[in-house]
Amino acid sequence: MSLNLSIPIERYVNALADTLMMVGVSGGIALAAGIPLAVLLIVTAPGGFLASPRTHRALGSVINGFRATPFIVLLVALIPFTRLVTGTTIGVWAAIVPLAISATPFFARIVEVSLREVNPGLIEAAQAMGCRKWDIVRHVYLPEALPGIVGGFTITLVALISSSAMAGAVGAGGLGDLAIRYGYERYETRVMFEVIVILVALVSVLQFGGEWLARRADHRRSIS
Predict the structure, then answer these.
(1) For residues 29 and 152, what is the distance between their CA atoms, to the nearest angstrom?
(2) Do the Cβ atoms of 161 and 199 come closer than 8 Å?
(3) What is the pTM of this model?
(4) Smallest Cα–Cα separation from 23: which of 159, 209, 207?
(5) pLDDT confidence of residue 6
(6) Cα–Cα distance for residue pair 120/37, rounded to 1 Å
(7) What span, in angstroms and rounded, lies between the C-alpha atoms of 218 and 168?
(8) In the Cβ-directed half-sphere of 212, how many Cα atoms lie within 13 Å?
């Protein structure tokens, strides 16, 4: 693929770097916050070892509320909060706030599904051996659900790439901003095509890497 010579290649490189920054930081926040949220959903659910229906319903309602809100609407609604956190409403760091808030409940639900699929017999065996509640989470739930968590995180990163491109339409920077400003607004179809190719390549690399890591985690779990 030969990049459009009317646009310096540095712009493509900088746009890709901005996209990777947005996806990497917001993905890291979603990973750090999503797993604890999923664990809370599991342990407070009916039958969980910290069963609390009210807490479970309240937490589930909040998560569902954020998941049901389209990203572009969430982006606009969070402008005051974004300004409070970052001091600005444009640029890469301003986009990271809504990206992270959007991705965290999405990832939490995926992790919750993976945790629910853990064999109940393993949980019962750990309880019979006298394991403490949070040791069961650390040594049974999370290791057994790891392949699903890795696969879910890969899906989350791919969704973040899509959302980061959308955020570029409102001045967040990155590949989406490049496609809008230099492709759409200047009627440079080639620029838009090249950005799409870069995005597809980025998604393909992430998907391949995520599937490889998930297979390794599943293999290690099988032989342990």
Answers:
(1) 14
(2) yes
(3) 0.89
(4) 159
(5) 60
(6) 20
(7) 36
(8) 6
Q: Are 60 and 112 in contact (CB under 8 A)?
A: no
Distance CA 99, CA 212 (A): 25
Nearest alpha carbon to residue 166 among 62, 74, 104? 74
**How far is Cα 203 from Cα 189, in angstroms, rounded to an integer?**
21
Q: At what angle do helices 142-167 and 189-223 cross, to 10 degrees?
A: 170
DSSP classification of residue 182: I
Helix (H, G, I), strand (E, B) or coil at 145: helix
pLDDT at 168 over 90: no
Q: Are residues 45 and 112 in contact, defined by beta-carbon separation less than 8 angstroms?
A: no
* Residue 191 pLDDT: 85
For residues 220 and 49, the answer to whether their CB atoms sit within 8 Å is no
* SS3 state at 202: helix
Residue burial 2-19, b: 16+ Cβ < 10 Å; e: rest: ebbeebeeebbeebbebb
**Distance, C-alpha 212 to centroid of its chain:** 18
